[in-house]
Amino acid sequence: MTAVGNTQPFCVLMAGLPGSGKTTLSSALTARGFIRLCPDEEMFRRHGVYGIDFPRGIFPALERPVLEEISIELGEQLRSGQDVVIDHGFWTPDDRARWRAIATDAGATVALVYLEASHEELWSRVSKRNARHEADPNSIYFSESDLLRYRTRFVPPGRTNRTLSTTVTRNPY
Predict the structure, then answer these.
(1) Among 47, 49, 97, 133, who pairs with 139 as Cys (CB 3.0-4.6 Å)?
(2) Which pTM does this prediction carry?
């Protein structure tokens, strides 16, 4: 299956901070035939609850092999003609370029979707998700100070013809 009007497989890279709506939108794309790949869900499946089953500080080390395996799966799915959405933050230009290259090397048309929201909106969503973090792999628990720190590390994508950007102003939760 490929996106409407496209003969190549289609890959959507979801970029944004926690709480911006990446999971909501990427889950909606599955109804249109996309395969959804989500590193956070795989981390939860393999390692359990962040900060409870494994210490917060080792997340990057545990995530590296997960991301590598998902990148391989991405290439395989796209080469088979399947449309794919990746539910991941893509915080840096290098990260976005790496995943875009994997998808284009597999013959896909790639769109980067950047979801932007105010700090207040992000924190409103994240604080609600925190209540279910032990049961929901997409609800990693973190504090408001964590969210503020994450914003300093996130490099918003530049506006190009290959980036779709939207500002999220209402809470879908």
Answers:
(1) 133
(2) 0.84
